[in-house]
Write a structure and sequence with these properties.
The protein has 3 helices and 2 strands; from the N terminus they run ββααα. By secondary structure, it is mainly alpha-helical. The protein has one domain. The longest helix is centred in the C-terminal third of the chain and has 29 residues.
């Protein structure tokens, strides 16, 4: 086992660290960018989200009806606004 030398201190008591020593430790303390297990979990989660968001046939029909109703109401509102803008004559 290697003995660790006592850190050098400045006049004010701060520990003096050499830059190359910091870089050596930094390389040991960093987490790798990609972990195969993490990537697998991300793919599984993405598949679940896609399955949850896929509309079934009944939802698609209901969505179409709501869209038609929204278009109808927008058209009626536009006609009403137009009639209110016309001067009474």
């Amino acid at each position: 086992m290697r003995s660790v030398p006592e850190p050098k201190r400045t006049d004010r008591g701060r520990v003096r660290v050499r830059t190359h020593e910091v870089w050596q430790w930094r390389s040991l303390l960093t987490v790798p960018d990609t972990d195969p297990k993490t990537e697998e979990l991300k793919l599984t989660q993405l598949e679940r989200e896609r399955a949850d968001s896929a509309p079934d046939e009944d939802e698609a029909v209901q969505h179409e009806r709501r869209a038609e109703k929204a278009r109808y109401l927008a058209e009626k509102l536009e006609k009403r606004a137009e009639s209110e803008r016309r001067p009474d004559g």
